[in-house]
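Work Package 4 report. The design task specified in the project plan requires that, given a folded chain encoded as structure tokens, an amino acid be chosen for each position. We show below one input record used in the internal validation round.
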């Protein structure tokens, strides 16, 4: 772990036919890397300019690996995405997607949800966890949308973050995916990966957001967020990254923290990369994987 050696890993990381990792030949690593540290080929510490170039190259590579990257919450309008994002705290997007069909059937508009009985709302969203606190937030934001914004979700971050239960992360999700306003979404996966990539050492989400925004053009912020989160959910896992199946391994200073054997690493791949259903019950048409099952249905093995 402590020795510095050139990363030698094939970028031909393969998975099930539903979504290949990369069909490109491995490129020569631009850096000499060891877990937790990255240096230039000269042996000197990586400069900020070199880090920015490496970060942007990683973004380009991820764009080729995940050309279909998208928000993994099912929604049909800004209100549904806002509600789904609030519900996604401390649970999976899959569980939210399995819960929201019944929720939006019962309360399709902010006005409907604002008038809901708390106990009825709590019962519907119970599968997402922390249902009492989430119900309180949903009632509060729905009432604010009804009373202060004419029943419409506002398209400015300064308005969104005033809504109960809505912080910068939720606001950026809504702005980037329904209003076309670029933003970095710092969730658990994004924060973990950008620290592994050595793009930042910050832990606070707002500081992470600020530092990553300074590295990339504004036009890339929203899609960068999707690509990094996709990679974190499918390959660069928290406890056991699939390093041997990672197409950006030559660019990653954390290579070696996970499984480096290509065959063993392939078995760690998730969702479409491993041939399993995704998180959305209604994925976009270009998604190469399988739809998620509805609530109560058995997930295919």
């Amino acid at each position: 772990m402590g020795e510095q050696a050139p990363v030698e890993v094939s970028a031909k990381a393969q998975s099930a036919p539903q979504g290949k990792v990369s069909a490109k030949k491995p490129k020569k690593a631009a850096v000499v890397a060891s877990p937790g540290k990255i240096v230039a080929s000269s042996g000197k510490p990586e400069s900020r300019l070199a880090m920015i170039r490496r970060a942007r190259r990683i973004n380009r590579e991820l764009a080729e690996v995940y050309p279909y990257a998208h928000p993994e919450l099912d929604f049909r309008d800004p209100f549904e995405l806002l509600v789904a994002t609030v519900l996604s705290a401390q649970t999976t997007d899959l569980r939210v997607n399995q819960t929201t069909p019944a929720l939006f059937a019962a309360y399709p508009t902010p006005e409907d949800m604002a008038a809901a009985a708390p106990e009825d709302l709590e019962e519907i969203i119970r599968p997402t966890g922390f249902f009492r606190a989430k119900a309180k937030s949903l009632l509060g934001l729905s009432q604010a949308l009804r009373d202060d914004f004419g029943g419409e979700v506002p398209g400015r971050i300064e308005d969104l973050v005033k809504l109960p239960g809505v912080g910068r992360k939720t606001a950026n999700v809504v702005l980037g995916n329904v209003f076309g306003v670029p933003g970095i979404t710092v969730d658990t996966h994004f924060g973990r990966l950008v620290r592994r990539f050595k793009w930042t050492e910050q832990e606070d989400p707002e500081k992470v957001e600020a530092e990553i925004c300074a590295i990339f053009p504004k036009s890339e912020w929203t899609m960068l967020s999707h690509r990094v989160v996709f990679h974190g959910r499918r390959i660069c896992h928290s406890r056991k990254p699939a390093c041997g199946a990672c197409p950006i391994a030559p660019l990653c200073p954390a290579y070696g923290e996970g499984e480096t054997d290509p065959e063993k690493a392939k078995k760690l791949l998730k969702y479409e990369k491993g041939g399993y259903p995704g998180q959305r019950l209604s994925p976009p048409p270009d998604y190469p994987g399988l739809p998620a099952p509805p609530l109560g249905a058995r997930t295919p093995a």
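The first helix runs from residue 48 to 65. Validation will be extended to a larger panel in the next phase.
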